[in-house]
Amino acid sequence: MASRSVDMQCWKCGAELKNVLLPFSRYEECGKCRADLHACLGCRHYDPAAVDACREDRADFTLDKDKANFCDFFTVHMRAYRHQDKAAAQKARAALAEIFGEDLPADNVDSIQTAQTEAERALAELKRLFGESE
Question: Is residue 49 one of the residues assigned to a domain?
């Protein structure tokens, strides 16, 4: 099979991956988030509504859809990234926590936003210290 170069998107973080050589090995990773690219979540056949989350009925069952696998039917999904709005899930968790008198889990929206803001400030400070411009 001849190699070809394509532009694609990481299924996990949405990063644009330019000039990726196909077919790639099962060890190929996203340069930004290090996610395995040869994974069910990055495949054209992945469908959470299908049996075993795969529209290819001859494919073997894969437990970890986000991990690299040896599936012979893997076909790159060029736009596999699916932004997930977690607001509804977090609202439901908050309601359950209130019903059962528990504290909210540490992964609530405010703590995530605070962590991102702190990380952004730390990165800006590092860039300032090393003289890099934004």
Answer: yes
